[in-house]
Design goal:
Belongs to the asparagine synthetase family. Keywords: Amino-acid biosynthesis, Asparagine biosynthesis, ATP-binding, Glutamine amidotransferase, Nucleotide-binding. By secondary structure, the chain is α/β, with parallel strands linked by helices. The chain is 42% helix and 16% strand. The chain contains 25 helices and 19 strands. It has a six-stranded antiparallel beta sheet with strand order 2-3-1-9-8-11. A six-stranded antiparallel beta sheet has the order 4-5-6-7-12-13, covered by helices on one side.
Length: 627
């Protein structure tokens, strides 16, 4: 998977900046525990931390071409790359026929040779998850490329004479040119609203390269362009053909994403998505005469004392075991308790992995602990993220109120269940940062991007709205989940692969009509039918259940202690903006029972933002009441 970083500066000699580049590179040690490398040139420096997955012996980076550049004393191009290219073998064969010669078996060398052959067009040929940096010595130009769905992150910070970049903000912040962390009102709004606006980062001056985009940095400045976007296309296949096509794609995608020279496992919740991936992976392993290992997460006493709710009607444990027996995997349940979830050291690690004030309550903490446990057995893990976004598994696709909402539908549903970002803050603060107008503007901007078919908006308003919901979910909601998966996995040195995010599957299913996606009356009916021969009937019929969350009143009381501290400590960054009466009302709820999951997310997100402001010494600017 790896971590990448670098610095381009056209008015200074970066060969004298070894110490700074080393510091930037070493911030990414968790992403790449197996090796490190730095390459320095006059106006460019590339750093790399490696998690060895393919060609363990020869895939070291930054990787240079044997062909010399201008003057003959420098390579033609140098690459620092993180991720996986799943079609690298086919590309390698094509490049060999075009006259290229290879000295490694790595996908890194394929990416480098592909750039030499096709220039920036090489990005359109890649199937995978990746963040790529290529320094072209002949052009004196840096190229940054991010995968289509944004599975792998990539941040950059323009400077007076170039730019800084890194897989995580901390790599950029390690450079003195970006060391003073500040956040404006708008940058706080994203965290308050539980949104990831494409390209926006809550550090002043820093940006995130958008999914499906590439960036060029040269002497003439910085340009960013899109090389991939979702398109609206007529769907002409009938239902049997559509089901068969989905299955054919999955039959190709899952084995393709299992290529690794290190141990690989599958995450298994017992839900439709992870079970489908697991079943296909188990078949691929069995064909090679091997057996797949699977892992799930649970909490002490959770299954025995389970309480159903609107988003978790059933516990995962029994279903995960049933699927494991059905497909013949070696299953491991990682059982966590309250003490581990509240461990201050674990929470500091999670915040440090995010670098940003986003969180999923106990979900990202438990995910980190699950990944850390899996890492003791494997380096790569398959998972089912993306299926709900691609096949329309969320409640907001069918809930009438969410469909009518003139905002992001998950915000509408969340507000009804206690996830109101305004509720813990003084009204003057919320009004001062124009949160309502910010939310409305983001929504209008997102809607304007949605591709539509000719006549769809007038002839079939319901299908048009479903397309809008699908686009919003794929471009504004999915990135949050992919962020969580990437940050928690990389903090553990575990590479997560997400077969449902293969762009071919996403492009095809995006244009399948809603009536076909739900032809049986159940959510994700199309996927259920495509996997009908793979799974037990109980799993095929199981209603969607969200990722498990701890159900423990004592956990909630511990959270409230942190919220009360943030509100009552005059030195706490958020203290001036929190409404003491609202905090006391939330505290009272834990005296007689548990918080709802959405209230818990609200409390934890507020505490996380306060911790983030304090830990990263973020200065608040353009915020009413801050001087």
């Amino acid at each position: 998977m790896c971590g990448i970083t670098g610095w381009v500066a056209f008015t200074r000699d970066l060969t004298a900046e070894q110490r700074t580049v080393d510091a930037m590179t070493d911030t990414l040690a968790a992403r790449g525990p197996d090796a490190r490398g730095v390459w320095l040139d006059t106006h460019a420096a590339l750093g790399h931390r490696r998690l060895a997955v393919i060609d363990l012996e020869h895939g070291t980076q930054p990787m240079r071409t044997p062909e010399p550049g201008p003057g003959g004393d420098r390579p033609r191009a140098v690459i620092s790359y993180g991720g996986e290219i799943y079609n690298f073998r086919e590309l390698r064969e094509e490049l060999v026929l075009l006259g290229h010669r290879f000295t490694t078996r790595s996908d890194t060398e394929v990416a480098l040779r592909a750039y030499l052959q096709w220039g920036t067009d090489f990005a359109r040929r890649l199937n995978g998850m990746y963040s790529i940096a290529v320094w072209d010595t002949a052009r004196e130009e840096l190229l940054l490329v991010r995968d289509r769905l944004g599975v792998k992150p990539l941040f950059y910070h323009p400077t007076a004479d170039g730019l800084l970049f890194g897989s995580e903000p901390k790599a950029v912040l390690a450079n003195p040119l970006a060391a003073d962390a500040c956040a404006s009102a708008e940058e706080l709004c994203d965290a308050l609203l539980f949104l990831r606006t494409p390209g926006r980062v809550p550090f002043r001056g820093m940006r995130e390269l958008k999914p499906g985009h590439l960036l060029r940095a040269g002497r003439d400045g910085i340009t960013e362009e899109r090389y991939w976007a979702l398109e609206a296309r007529p769907h002409t296949d009938d239902l049997p053909t559509t089901v068969a096509t989905v299955r054919e794609l999955l039959d190709d995608i899952v084995p393709r994403q299992m290529v690794a020279d290190v141990p690989l496992v599958s995450l298994l919740s017992g839900g439709l998505d992870s079970s489908t991936v697991t079943a296909l992976a188990a078949r691929a392993r069995a064909a090679d005469g091997d057996r797949l290992s699977t892992f799930s997460v649970d909490f002490t006493g959770h299954t025995e004392n389970f309480k159903a709710d609107a988003i978790r009607p059933t516990p995962d444990g029994p279903y995960a075991l049933e699927v494991a027996r059905h497909v013949g995997s070696d299953h491991h349940a990682i059982v966590l308790d309250r003490a581990r979830l509240l461990d201050p050291a674990v929470r500091r690690t999670v915040l440090g992995a995010w670098d940003l004030p986003f969180n999923f309550a106990d979900l990202d903490v438990s995910l980190y602990l699950l990944f850390a446990a899996v890492r003791q057995h494997a380096t790569v893990a398959l998972s089912g993220e993306g299926a709900d976004e691609v096949f329309g598994g969320y409640l907001w696709f069918s809930d009438p109120e969410a469909r009518r909402a003139e905002t992001f539908p998950w915000l509408k549903l969340g507000a009804h269940r206690g996830l109101d970002p305004r509720s813990l803050f003084h009204p003057w603060f919320i009004d001062g940062i124009d949160l309502a107008e910010y939310e409305a503007d983001l929504y209008r901007t997102a809607l304007a991007e949605v591709p539509v078919l000719d006549g769809e908006d007038t002839e079939n308003a319901a299908e048009r709205r479903t397309r809008e919901l699908g686009y919003l979910t794929l471009t504004r909601w999915l990135p949050i989940l992919l962020d969580k998966k990437d940050r928690m996995g990389m903090a553990s040195g575990l590479e997560g692969r997400v077969p449902f995010c293969d762009h071919r599957l996403v492009e095809y299913v995006f244009n399948v009509p809603w009536e076909m996606k739900t032809f049986s009356g159940q959510e994700k009916a199309l996927l259920r039918e495509a996997a009908s021969d793979l799974l037990p009937q109980s799993v095929l019929r199981r209603k969607k259940a969200a990722y498990p969350s701890i159900q423990d009143p004592a956990y909630d009381r511990s959270l409230i202690t942190g919220l009360a501290a943030a509100a009552g400590d005059g030195d706490a960054p958020l203290s001036p903006f929190l409404d003491g009466d609202a905090v006391r009302r939330m505290t009272a709820k834990t005296a007689t029972g548990s918080l709802s999951e959405f209230e818990r997310i609200l409390v934890e997100s507020t505490v996380r933002m306060d911790d983030w402001l304090r830990t990263y010494d973020v200065g608040l600017i353009d915020v009413k009441g801050v001087h």
